[in-house]
Every structure is written in structure tokens, then in C-alpha cells.
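Protocol step 4 of 5: obtain the predicted structure for the target chain.
Materials: sequence only (see below). No template structures provided, no constraints applied. The aim of this step is simply to have a reference model before the mutagenesis design in step 5. Sequence pasted as it appears in the construct record:
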Amino acid sequence: MRRVFNEVTGISFEIPDEPRIVSLAPSITDILHTIGAWKWVVGVSIYCNIPPEAKEKPRVGAYLKVMDRRLAELEPDIIFTTTGAQRETTFKLVEEGYNVYTVPLPVSIYGIFENMFAIANVLGLTENALRSSKELLEEALYTKDRLSGSVYYEIDLGGPITAGKISYIHTALEHMGLRNIYGDVEEPWIQPDTGYVLEKNPEIILYEVKPGGDDDPERIKKMFIERGWGDVDAVKNGRIYVLEPDTLAHYGPALFKKMRSIVDTFYPSVEG
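Step 4 output (C-alpha cells):
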């Protein structure tokens, strides 16, 4: 048996050496696979799509709402959640008698390493985390300062959202050598202002499609033109790059491979 302490709830509990695990966050699911705990995972959230094998695991709910009956059927020894919006879910699960361990939301891409070790320490897989972190560090070093230019990043979350200074996405952009035009705004998530983007005139636009969204480059270019951004350098020069879902928005270990894909320009650009 292993004793675990959850700093968020202030509660200690014991789990077996080979625990039945439920993950309620995509980043945690990715970490569990990366550190070799996949055989113990018995359930994930509906948003957990990395690794692809996650789609074969039972789904126990969304990010904020859990299907109580399905969760109970899985009889987890430990449930992993995150801070932020999942805080209320964490305390609800604790009240229902579950063992919950909470992992902080990273404010930079480097926090992914800390989270990986935190989870590995809970499960007795520290050596695996060390081995995996060395591989991820090589990916991170490959992408360091490989790109240049000012960039506007946008993700469709039911409406346009961009990343400010207090965000792992901002640090991902800066790590690759790009200058985030919202990098001076001390917020994690921001609704973009049309006039501000025009004023900053980014050389590059990275547009991340939501799951199941329309990734047609011409539609996306037309959308930006209709906003009045036709004279923005990125639009005029055909430097709009369409990113698949869970590219920069995903803050698990797979993010470093996604960053490498961006550096290697594996994504289609919209021709001007």
C-alpha cells in the first residue's frame, strides 16, 4: 500500500501498489500513459483523446460533471483531477468517499514536467518519469528559438479565445521563438479585440480548431477577413497556420511533440 496526501483537500489516504485509476483531465491521462501507468487506468473523461488508446477506456463524464453511476461501477482506488475549474468537482468526489489527488494547472510548459513527477511519485513510478522527462527535454530543446516573428494565437472555444502572459500557451510560443502579441496582458485567457490585433499586425496566425470543428483553410481565412483583418500581414501574406484540436491547448507531455510539428511546418498554411 502507498500513502498519498492531497494538498488541495488536506486529506491523506492509502492506495494499493497497482491501483485502479480514473483520470478526469486530458493532461493527466497523457501523463499516466507517458510514465507507464496505463495498465492501471480504468476510466477517463470524454475529453481525453491522447493517447489514441484513451478512446477505448470507459468514459466517466466531462471536465466538470461526472456520471456517478458509471464512476461507482469502476471502483477506482484513486481519481486524478486538476485545480482551477475542477476544484468543486474534487471536493464533491471527496465528500462521496473517493480518494482524490489534485494536480495543479501549469502556468508554463515547464510545469508539465513537475506534474509528471508529482503523479509518478504518487504511483511509485519516479524512475519512469525521469526517463520520460529526458526524452521530452530533447523535444523541447529541438524547438527552442527555431521560429521567429510576431504571432496571434486563437482557439475556438465556442467563440474566439487567445492566450495571455499567464499561460502555458504563451510560454510555448515564446519557447519556439515567436512573439505573442498578447504577451503583455497578464491574463491566461483573453477574448481578442479586433482593433488590438490590427494595431499589433501579427506576421503569423496560429488557429487551433475545436474538436469536430471545420478546419477548411479558406473558410478560416475568410473569417479573419470578415473581422476586418484583411490588411493584417499574416492574412495578406498567407501565413495562417491551421492547427488540429489538442495541439497547443493540450498541456500534457504530447504538447512537446505538437510543438515540434509546428516547427517542422507540418500544418497547412492558407495561401494569400
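Step 4 remarks: The first strand starts at residue 2 and ends at 6. Residues 145-263 form a domain with the Rossmann fold fold (CATH 3.40.50.1980).
Proceed to step 5.
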